[in-house]
Amino acid sequence: MKILVIDDNANMRTLLRLVLERSYYVPLLARHGKEGLDKAITDKPKLILMDIRMPVMDGWEAVKALRANPDTKNIPILATTALFLPHELKACLDAGCNAYIVKPFSLLALESKIGELLAARIAAEV
After folding, report:
1. Contact 29, 51 (CB under 8 A)
2. What letter would DSSP give residue 32?
3. Which CATH number do you get for residue 14?
4. What is the sign, positive or negative, of the torsion defined by CA atoms of 25, 66, 100, 104?
5. What is the per-residue pLDDT across 74-122, written as a single tens digit (0 to 9) for each?
6. What total number of domains does the chain contain?
7. 3 near 25, Cβ under 8 Å?
8. Which domain holds residue 107?
9. Of 123, 9, 65, 55, which Cα lies nearest the Cα of 77?
10. Which residues of 77-103 are buried (b: 16+ CB within 10 A; e: fewer)?
């Protein structure tokens, strides 16, 4: 099952890739929102892990573009963000993210959120 990681931080991409591979997912990696948008359209992942603050195209712009595209509008998006103020987290959901997790997060919390979002997607497809 493919999961797209969109994050400008190389260390975070590596960490998330290792976590996903450990759980037998197929990680796809993108360095910014524009690259992630292109990969989402091409590769059709089952879930997207989206950083919010990035160059070229930030996470909010990328989420809005994903939601506007008929081919990607139903892909669950988990915001992985250093933003933590209530209005910033609400903005993630308002932009179209299904959920968020605040950096730094525990791997157990990340795996739990991924499982919840994938289970909800599978249930919606049935």
Report:
1. no
2. S
3. 3.40.50.2300
4. positive
5. 999 999 988 666 777 787 788 899 998 998 889 999 999 999 999 988 8
6. 1
7. yes
8. 2-125
9. 65
10. bbbbbebeeeeebebbeebbbbbbbee
